[in-house]
What we know:
single chain, 207 residues, alpha/beta
Amino acid sequence: xxxxxxLLQIEGPAGVLEAAIDRCPGxxxxxxxxxxxxxxFGGTMTNKVVQTLAxxxxxxxxxxxxxxxxxxxxxxxxxxxxxxxxxxxxxxIDRLAPAGPLxxxxxxxxxxxxxxxxxxxxxxxxxxxxxxxxxxxxxxQVATIVPELHARTLVVxxxxxxxxxLSSVMDWASPQSLPVLVVxxxxxxxxxxxxxxxxxxxxxxxx
Length: 207
């Protein structure tokens, strides 16, 4: 993301996991761990939406951790339909954000994984915020967000998303009474609207 980005490798469930850390100036409020889109369709930790989420987290006072799921970039292993990828994200949290306040964020497939990681850690960790962008509800079984975390959860979706229809996200969110912030004319990758996305996430993380 910038010249100060720290690249590193950690041990994951299927071997080495490639990660990047962008640190906020001064003392961090906590750590944001951000998951990238579908590994089989070009998703990596350098995706522009993922980098936008990291930038918003740093601006809001959090250290931002991005990583490549198994089989992506220098990360070992192979695609595991979300199961192993959940374990990858849990390993990243365990090694790079083992204590302190936590932000969990993801884009598309990464948002789906993030919901299942949230379900696994919410009882043990201080989850300050959750950010789900372009949540892949039409393609995967996205986990329910417990009511006590609704106020801490930002769900953002593009009105014109032709990869994940807005209707599928509403079908997931409506039974939970979980609000969804809809970006007018927004596509799946928020082309031309990344500064807006950054500001929306920044405001949520600062709330």
